[in-house]
Amino acid sequence: MKLLSLLLFLPVLQACAPSGTDAATGEHVFKQCASCHQVGANARAGFGPQLNGLFGRRAGAAPDFAYSEAMKASGIVWDERSLAAFVRDPGKLVPGTRMRFWGIGDENEIKALQAYLRTFQDIH
């Protein structure tokens, strides 16, 4: 009976979960980032750096945020590959980072997040 209940409830769970790789889905994924990061015309650093113009930016280089030494020394220039690796497991890519985040394991969510952040690429 429990299995039947779970099988009946599964479509409801799937309907609530983001499923695409587009910017609209990425906006939904970004909500888990938004408690620390901002994007948009009025974005400012808070608990984490603002993420406007992220792609092509050197890690630890936003002028209005105090980064960890590990992040500043990482040598990372943000692109799709480095961002995907970081949001999967921040501490693995940058040991000593102060970012406290469990990671995103779903590749579609990562692609959607990247698409969303791309919409803020020209805002600095």
TrEMBL record:
Residues 1-17 form the signal peptide. Keywords: Electron transport, Heme, Iron, Metal-binding, Signal, Transport. Residues 21-121 form the Cytochrome c domain. It comes from the Bacteria. It holds the Pfam family Cytochrom_C. This is C-type cytochrome. It comes from Massilia aerilata.
